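Before relying on records like the one below, remember that each one covers exactly one chain. Contacts with other chains, cofactors or solvent are not represented anywhere in the record.
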Amino acid sequence: MGNNPGKLYVISGPSGTGKGTVCAELLKDRNNEFSVSMTTREPRVGEEDGKHYFFVSKEEFQANIDKGNFLEHAVVFDNMYGTPKDAVMKKLDRGRNVILDIDVQGGLQVKKAMPEAVMIFLLPPNMEVLRERLVGRQTDAPEVIEKRLGKALNEIKLIGEYDYYIVNDDLEQAVAEAKSIITAESRRLPDHVKPIISKYEK
């Protein structure tokens, strides 16, 4: 069963659940690689093409849409962002797992384009803890936080579209559970494999 291709892991959840932190821990494993997005925005100081993003023109981005090369894409503040399928497939073909940190709507687009993706939903312990985390970040006005909480409830309603869920109450435990999912998936038998039982029947 050696030389298996890697798997795409989609990690989604409401803002404030710790997706980025969990993903960062998973990426410490050399078998896991980050899914690099493509964008039409200008690079910020310190950002490298191909490492942080693939920076392209709007024309090149549209060309990728036209040829169906995005697992998902969206427009955010007049800039276009997307997950290029060819870049993901190259990593998978090398036997690497690809970790994609994305919101729920984007995650569902990926699932539609690539049904074999492993979908993991990250939950807060409860909504009050989520509120505390959002307030603690000190990056959003109170009205923005309320909008995020409302969006979180709508996103949680879609959890049935995912394969696994993890409650991020304790970061170490959440990371351990995510790693256990990846380990279990690496041992999953493909559907086309037939049980070999003849030698056990004797």
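The longest strand covers residues 70-76.
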